[in-house]
């Protein structure tokens, strides 16, 4: 019988739980808790958002990705802004390992991979006065975003590390059960950023937040 997909590898992470590498006709994906974390589906989600960003920001020299995962968003950053310096932060080294082994993370140029907590990293760069043209916030643990990343203090820290004219993109699930939480996040973002627009790819919503 023909299989629509196959599980290529499966490992247990103390942080994310069971991590699966699933391959289907469109390519490989990293799945945690039934939700794609990296791979072709995640690329299609971020592609729609980053296309919109390119219409506003032709020059991007420094990018921070919070929730690097297997590196799918970083691939797109390299595609749209070749030569840009990318820093990717992920708390789970196994997720990064899977991205290097099964996806294209190992082939991305000009990327610094940091294993650690996203908020702690943001606080560190904020203290050093480092600024980014683009910050991608993709902080899922399975289908959930840890509560601390909804806090106003974290969002304000993201705003502070943006360069003038910078953009922060917050990814959130947007099925029926996640809509209320997504709208609460949207309200917080609008209280902090000058302009907030939305992109609706697949079953997600991405909030594009523009700095002064």
UniProtKB/TrEMBL annotation:
Pfam families: Spermine_synth (PF01564). PROSITE patterns: PABS_2 (PS51006). It comes from the Bacteria. Keywords: Polyamine biosynthesis, Transferase. One of its GO terms (biological process) is polyamine biosynthetic process. The keyword Transferase applies. The active site is at residue 138. Residues 62-212 form the PABS domain. Belongs to the spermidine/spermine synthase family. This is PABS domain-containing protein. It comes from Candidatus Blackburnbacteria bacterium RIFCSPLOWO2_01_FULL_41_27.
